[in-house]
From TrEMBL:
Protein name as annotated: Translation initiation factor eIF2B subunit delta
SUPFAM superfamilies noted in UniProt: NagB/RpiA/CoA transferase-like
Biased composition (Basic and acidic residues): 13-39, 48-68
InterPro entries: IF-2B-related, IF_2B-like_C, NagB/RpiA_transferase-like
Length: 458
């Protein structure tokens, strides 16, 4: 009985030990799972004291906290402007550094100059803001400086210098610009060498001459005499025999340019000056406007011929170019009355016997293209019944037609703002012009088409 009663005890202990072992295994599994989830809840677990973190876990936690602080600092800082280089501190692991000051900000901190608004590095100087021109004047051109470095590589150095002189108005009147242009083209021709496989007459105009013209036009719009001379020069180039040697062809062109300057400019000016001087009578009172080399030479020639007369000079109120003119006339012994503007124009006209002006060009309909203000003088003289004589070379005649001052003109680059701007020239109708003196003689303004046809036959 005792043996039977003691045997069930071992049998009952076995299931109990199995249960304990299963519970231990379950507890180990739970601990293992908790250890895997510990990094996700590290921040919350440690304060509660549930489990002490290992060294690796503490290091990982510190990195996460540092990343969180960095992200929070970035959100509080202002965003850099578009195009500014982004700064990253991910590799260094340090706190975000403030943007470094540029030269402008460093000087501003010392009170030298104001700091720039943006911390972005300055890569280039700000572009110059040009005054806006109303749309209805947008067709008018204006002389402007062209950076030599932006010019075509084929532009000759002599042409580069000429373009800069034109853009700064160092060479202003049409005849002087024409002569300087032809002399520069002579240097271009002298330095030209025809490439292998082509000829001068077929290669020079398109590949060499045209880049020079484009550059000069970019510096300042071509005057009418320059356009006439360039068309003439291209015609001479096209006439060169393709079998002619380059040296002979270049010599022929240079001689043609010299003859053109001598006949159409030098001799033409001489004839016009002599004719205008002969038209001046004894004791005349001649009113002229501003300054033109033809008028100045005509007055000096008349004085050299022994005539006694007086000059009233009404100057350009914007440029005062007549001051030098007055000095030359006075030095030659010619009495001069100087008027700085149009305030006393009608009074001065009433004291005068004739008006002598010069033109920059004459249109086919007889209109005169001249310095701004010439039209005011001519119309006021016409109202008083006075004679208005214009001096002009035939190289300045054009087949174009104009009835106002806005079809063809230039904007004064020195007097151009957002509020106002000034035009360099004006147009005078043919009815206000009594006579035109050219190298071909004295004619009326309406004779321009006939003279143009005669020049084409020569």
């Amino acid at each position: 009985m005792a043996a039977e009663g003691g045997q069930p005890a071992p049998k009952s202990e076995a299931p109990e030990k199995k249960d304990q072992a299963a519970q231990a295994d379950q507890k180990k599994a739970d601990q293992k799972k908790a250890s895997k989830d510990q990094p996700k809840a590290g921040a919350a677990a440690e304060p509660a004291g549930e489990k002490k973190l290992s060294g690796a876990e503490l290091k990982k936690k510190a990195k996460e906290e540092k990343a969180a602080r960095r992200a929070a600092a970035k959100t509080t800082q202002p965003q850099p402007p578009a195009g500014a280089p982004a700064q990253s501190d991910a590799k260094s692991g340090s706190k975000p550094k403030p943007k470094q000051d540029g030269p402008g900000q460093a000087a501003a901190q010392h009170g030298k100059i104001p700091a720039p608004r943006s911390a972005a590095p300055v890569t280039a100087a700000p572009k110059e803001v040009k005054p806006s021109i109303p749309d209805y004047f947008s067709h008018l051109a204006m002389a402007k400086g062209v950076n030599i470095t932006h010019a075509d590589k084929d532009v000759h150095p002599a042409v580069l210098v000429l373009g800069q002189q034109m853009s700064t108005m160092a060479i202003s009147d049409s005849t002087t610009r024409l002569e300087a242009t032809l002399l520069a083209f002579k240097k271009v021709i002298d330095s030209y060498t025809t490439p292998h496989g082509t000829t001068l007459s077929r290669h020079f105009t398109s590949h060499v001459l045209n880049p020079q013209i484009v550059y000069l036009t970019a510096c300042r719009p071509m005057c009418f005499s320059m356009g006439n001379a360039i068309r003439w020069l291209k015609l001479q180039i096209s006439k060169i025999d393709i079998d002619m040697a380059d040296s002979d062809a270049k010599k022929l062109l240079c001689e043609a340019i010299d003859s053109f300057i001598h006949e159409r400019i030098t001799l033409a000016d001489l004839v016009i000056v002599n004719t205008a001087a002969d038209m001046i009578d004894e004791d005349d009172v001649i009113l002229t406007y501003a300054h033109h080399h033809l008028v100045e030479r005509a007055l000096l020639k008349a004085k050299a011929n022994g005539k006694h007369f007086k000059v009233i000079l009404v100057d350009d109120p914007f440029e005062r170019v007549g001051l030098g003119h007055v000095k030359k006339l006075t030095a030659a012994g010619i009495p001069v009355i100087y008027s700085p503007d149009f305030g006393a124009l009608r009074t001065n006209l009433q004291e005068s016997t004739t008006v002598l002006v010069a033109a920059e060009a004459l249109f086919s309909n007889g209109a005169m293209y001249a310095r701004a203000g010439t039209c005011d003088v001519a119309t006021a003289a016409f109202d008083l019944g006075m004679r208005v004589t214009s001096l002009c070379e035939t190289i300045n005649f054009t087949e174009r037609v104009s009835i106002d001052s806005l079809t063809y003109n230039e904007i004064d680059p020195e007097r151009n703002t957002d509020e106002e701007f000034r035009l360099l020239f004006d147009t005078t109708r043919d009815k206000y012009i009594s006579a035109v003196v050219t190298e071909l003689g004295i004619c009326s303004a309406k004779s321009v088409p006939a003279i143009l046809r005669k020049l084409e036959e020569l």
